[in-house]
Amino acid sequence: MKTLIGTNVSILTSDIISRNMEKIKIENLSLVFGKNRSKAIDLLKKGQGKSEILEKTGCTVAVRDANLTINEGEIFVIMGLSGSGKSTLLRCLNRLINPTIGKIFINKDDITNMSDKELLEIRRKELAMVFQHFGLLPHRTVLSNVAFGLELQGISKEERETRAMETIELVDLKGYENQKVSELSGGMQQRVGLARGLANNPEVLLMDEAFSALDPLIRSQMQDELLLLQEKMQKTIVFITHDLDEAIKLGDRIAIMKDGEIVQVGTSEEIITNPANDYVTSFVENVDRSKVVTAGSIMFTKPTIARLKKDGPAVVVRKMREKGLSSLPVVRTNRTFLGFINIEDAVNLKKKEIKSIEEAIKPEAMTVTAEATVEDILPLLSKTTRSIPVVNEENHLLGTVSQTSVIAEMTGKDKDEISDIIQKAYDL
Ligand SMILES: Nc1ncnc2c1ncn2[C@@H]1O[C@H](COP(=O)(O)OP(=O)(O)O)[C@@H](O)[C@H]1O
Ligand SMILES: [Mg+2]
């Protein structure tokens, strides 16, 4: 889902998401901590709030009636303030804790009903966890830490070291394998933690505030690296954070939790443009929308176009005059974007009685994909008075983004109002 400008770049993660294979499903999951649980569950079912239940029973409702589907290959972020139930929910996924009510399916298998043996198998094959405080053995070497999980599984020294070296390379730690973990910086230690999680080649990576203890700069680097790694690995990643910027940067989709409840699930763009309630609004208020809102969501999907085969110069001139435009995007029958034609050029062709507009097409390199953000589009808009074509990977025209729609997005004013303002500015 990450932003790319230009035409020929395909994006692995979004390809995978479009397949929408369900990897994890959480159904009506609640988790209550405390002794007087049955009473608490009764109150929970009656719809009483977390603080009332705590007061009456001494039990903490850590997660309340959570429902989620997490797709194969996506980075799914669970975000919320401290104490909102994120870690508890994540721990239910590998059954470090058993849910009080509800079911969890991994690959459609109900893990809440599994025997210890089956559970062990699924933990081994499917799941790995990476924690905030890396959980490493400080006096052992990088290699030995990365191989640790494999060691616990009784895998031979030779094999586990070979596999550990592969993941050490993957996270860019080659050359450090014989150093003690305690001698490494925080960022590098977190990489060791990540490598250890990956050594078993799990299908699902559970990351609980994995980067939260790092300095901002290192943290940002680790986020970039995780995104790069994910392009290669295509794992299902459930990533927990209390930081909205991190959630936006990493998440293909985000779930927002408050007091144990999931209050909204969506892409960062959906959440920011359409917050479900005041709580989410207060969270997203300070987000820079230009980093999140994409060309795909603000583009005009039915721009006036010139069709190379069907529209001769006369038709093209008429279209532009009708709409008060000075140029039009030109497309082939299959909507392949070819460039623009200007009104003066079209008028000239018409005068010369030339039947095709082909020779007047001005190729245009400035296109964006639907995933480009407003932040990416702004510098392009300043270089042209035309709308920016939005194209897919095959360079087919999906729509256009105009200056007006970008200003509307940034200011929250409606488009007519902005057209008026721009019109007046030109008239002056
Ligand atoms: N082992 C526990 N025993 C009792 N209460 C707990 C336990 N672990 C967490 N809690 C409570 O459950 C709620 C959710 O905690 P947690 O899942 O750790 O939230 P988060 O990860 O979002 O900070 C909090 O109110 C917390 O105090
Ligand atoms: Mg936590």
What does this 3D model show about the protein?
The structure is a single chain. This protein has 428 residues and is of the alpha/beta class. It folds into two domains: 16-126 and 202-287, P-loop containing nucleotide triphosphate hydrolases (Rossmann fold, 3-Layer(aba) Sandwich); 296-427, CBS-domain (Roll), CATH 3.10.580. The protein is built from 19 helices and 15 strands. The chain has helices spanning 12-19, 37-45, 50-57, 86-93, 116-125, 142-146, 148-152, 157-170, 186-199, 216-233, 244-250, 268-273, 278-284, 295-298, 313-323, 343-351, 374-381, 403-411, 415-427; strands at 22-33, 60-71, 75-80, 101-106, 109-110, 127-130, 204-208, 236-241, 253-258, 261-266, 306-307, 327-331, 337-342, 388-391, 397-401. The strands form four sheets. The protein has a six-stranded mixed beta sheet with strand order 6-7-8-3-9-10, with helices on both faces. It has a four-stranded antiparallel beta sheet with strand order 2-1-4-5, sandwiched between helices. Helix 10 links the parallel strand 7 (204-208) and strand 8 (236-241). Helix 18 crosses helix 19. The longest helix is centred in the middle third of the chain and has 18 residues, at 216-233. It is elongated, with a radius of gyration of 27 Å. Bound molecules: adenosine-5'-diphosphate (ADP) and magnesium ion (MG).
